[in-house]
Design brief:
This protein is an alpha/beta fold and 155 residues long. Helices cover 43% and strands 17% of the residues. Strand 1, helix 1 and strand 2 form a beta-alpha-beta unit.
């Protein structure tokens, strides 16, 4: 088993949707035979901890960045200045962008994320998959697993 820790970057406005998707991914990976995929979220910051320092440490410690993209994600000054800047500029980080909600790739500044293949299921964001979120979740798990397998076998 290979241990993989992923930093989950998401907008607080998307907390409910992001929490559901993280929960489902955690369930799929709990039964995985190749990887233990743990998702770090800022909800694990304890009262009294210096939240900025805890986030910075998690950004350094996690070899993967799981980005839940949405308009609110790209509107967040903290995500753009701190999280994206670190994740996208650190050599060797595995970046896993996921379309949580539809984003305008033409009229919004996507901070370089537009250069990466963004996961969507049948051209839909997670939010758009009314009644088929389970299919999006399974396909995302499979795509992440395949990417991790490729990264781990190619060095």
């Amino acid at each position: 088993m290979v241990d993989i820790k992923a930093f989950n970057s998401y907008a607080h406005a998307d907390q409910t949707l992001a929490g559901r998707l993280c929960g489902r991914l955690t369930t799929y990976f709990a039964a995985d035979t190749h990887f233990t995929f743990k998702i770090w979220r800022d909800s694990s910051i304890l009262p009294g901890e210096e939240w900025h320092e805890v986030i910075q440490q998690a950004l350094r410690d996690c070899p993967c960045g799981l980005l839940f993209l949405s308009p609110a994600f790209f509107a967040s000054g903290y995500i753009k200045a701190q999280e994206l800047k670190t994740l996208l500029s650190t050599p060797g980080k595995v970046i896993l962008p996921v379309m949580l909600e539809r984003v305008d790739f033409v009229r919004q500044d996507l901070e370089g994320v537009e250069k990466l293949q963004v996961f969507q299921w049948q051209g839909k964001s997670y939010e758009e998959c009314k009644g088929t979120k389970n299919k999006f979740e399974l396909a995302l798990f499979q795509a992440i697993h395949d990417r991790l397998e490729k990264v781990c076998t190619n060095g």
